[in-house]
Amino acid sequence: MNKFKAFQVNNVPHFHTSIIDQEMPLLSANEVLVKVAYSDVNYKDALASSESGGVIRSYPMTPGIDLSGTVVESRDERFKTDDSVLLTGYGLGVTQPGGYSQYQKVSGDWLIPLPKTLSLRQAMVLGTAGFTALLCVNALITKGMKTSDRIVVTGASGGVGSTAVAILKKLGFTSIIALSRKKESVEWLKKLGANEVLSPNEFLPEKTKPLGKQQIDYVIDTVGGDLLTQLLPLIAYDGAATLCGNAGGIKLTTTVLPFILRNIQLIGIDSVNVPHEKRFSLWQQLADLAIADDLFVKEIALEELPKVIQGLLAGQHQGRTLVNVGEMK
Known about the structure:
The chain is 27% helix and 26% strand. It is α/β, with parallel strands linked by helices and 329 residues long. The protein has two domains: 3-124 and 276-324, Quinone Oxidoreductase, Chain A, domain 1; 130-268, NAD(P)-binding Rossmann-like Domain (Rossmann fold). The strands form three sheets. Strands 3, 4, 5, 6, 7, 14 and 15 form a seven-stranded mixed β-sheet that branches. Strands 10-9-8-11-12-13 form a six-stranded parallel β-sheet. The protein has a two-stranded antiparallel sheet with strand order 1-2. β8, α3 (159-170) and β9 (176-179) form a beta-alpha-beta unit. The longest helix is centred in the middle third of the chain and has 24 residues, at 120-143. It is an enzyme of class 1 (oxidoreductase).
C-alpha cells in the first residue's frame, strides 16, 4: 500500500478541511511508523479543525492529538513491528501530523506500549480525556480528598468530566455532583456514577460572594471562566479545585479570600507534556480501573469529523467520540 487516507486542515486558498491521499513517509532515526486503528475527538481537536481555533500555527496539518495502533516499521530500538502502542499529547495533531490518518510517523520518544489489559479501541475511548481526568483525580487524592467528600465535576457531560465521574465512582467516592446543562445527559451520568446531576443554575447561589457557604470539598473543573469563579467561594476549608479546561473562557475573576481564609488550592492540570517516564504507569492505572466500556461513546469514520467538530464547538457534544480511522464510508 503506497497511499493512505488522512483528514487534513488547510488555509490555502482559504480555510477548509478535506480527506486526502498521502504517500507513505520515510523514517529518520528514532521514528516509528504506526498503522492507526483509532483516534478520538477532544475540544483541542475541534479548535485545531476550525479557522478561529488558534491552535494550528503551520498549514497544512492533520489534527488528532491521540492515536492507538500497531507498529509497521521502526527505527527506534524500543519498538518493533506488530507492537501495540498509543500516543497522547506532546505536539501530535498541533505541531506534528496527528491521529486522523490511517498511518502516522511519530517520534519513538512520544510512544508508549499499550498496557496488556487495554485494547486499542479502549485506549482511545479514554484518550487525552481519560488521561486528564485521572491526573485531576490523582492530584486531589494527593491533596487529601476522601471517598466521603462532596466533589463537584463541571462540564460533566463532556469527555473529561464524564470520565472523571466514572473514575471517582470506581474508586468508591460516594458524593459526586455532576454539573451539566444538558438534560439528556442526566440518566447516563447517574448510571456512570453521579449521585446528583444538576445544571449550574440549579446548584449555584443567585449571587456570588467573596466567601459563600462551605458546601463542597473538592472541584474537578473542565470549563474555566465564570463557572469556576462562582465555585471557588463554596469550597470548604482545606479543599481544592483542579483546572484543566477553558471552554467557558480563559479569564478567572476571583478574590484572595478563599485562598487565605479557607486554605484552598487551585491546581492546574496539563496532560500534554507529562514526562514520558510517568506515562506508562498512569495508563496502567487507567487500564486497571476498567472504565472504558462504561463510558458514553459514539463511533465515527474520518468523513464524519466535520459534523462532530461543529457540534462540539456549538456545545452539543456528549461523552466520548471514537474515530475508527481505518473505516471509510
